[in-house]
Amino acid sequence: MKNIGFIGTGIMGKPMAQNLQNAGYTLHFSEHFEPAPADILGEKGIACPSLAAVAQACDVIFIMVPDTPQVEDVLFNDEYGLDKGLSAGKTVVDMSSISPMATKRFAARIEKMGAHYMDAPVSGGEVGAKAGTLSIMVGGDQAVFDRINPLFQILGKNITLVGGHGDGQTCKVANQIIVALNIEAVSEALLFAAKAGADPARVRQALMGGFASSKILEVHGERMVKGTFDPGFRIALHQKDLNLALEGARELQLNLPNTAIAQQLFSTCAALGGSQWDHSAMIRALEHMSNFSIRD
Q1: How far apart are CA 122 and CA 158, in angstroms?
Q2: What's the rounded Cα separation, in Å, for the pair 109 and 115?
Q3: Active site (annotated) includes residue 172
């Protein structure tokens, strides 16, 4: 696994790629869509003209792009897809957050070629990507997981083989439900406290020592109090993930009422021009509905 491909060098992908480089690996980046960031090229970063060229040069290819259509395009585009350069024994690791059903189809097509496929979405945001402390939820074969796990260990700290193809993505959808509802709960609590006349910063500090404590209260509660909503993890991406949850619920004949409410609050933020805000800005939807800001 000396040569590794990495497709997608955005908010999450770039620091993940840099962590692999810092661990001694040489990474190949496609410049088919746009030039690779200059600070990841050089001794440990090689620019390739196409996705297919990356696949030809590398034993393992990571993908970290926004949504299901982008993953499908990266994998199977008729002109430049990774599949044009894959061969038996190579491994594709999709760390994007996409549809579990589509993932099963993608895996079947890749493995029909004799290559391997793993879905390995992550949680932990930009902070976790930079620190190498991501939670990684993996779907795929045990033998392939064992071989790729040393690379996962560079990127994260909580790495779990959940099950077969698509199960990693299913776990990520469940994660995003929990995160969204926790953001909604913290938003309501701080809004209630501030409207009642209490200092939301001190309320948050007090709650951090009790049973209500959570990572969302710690990190996003501070963002809410300070009004710092630069992403982070964009509302538009969390909307995409909740769409996966709600679409899956319809297929499974489930009712996820609070997930639907969280999605509506994100939609309110988007209507206010905030689709690119950090998802902690969900509180702005509640503030808008209440005509009250906790920062006033």
Answers
A1: 10
A2: 9
A3: yes
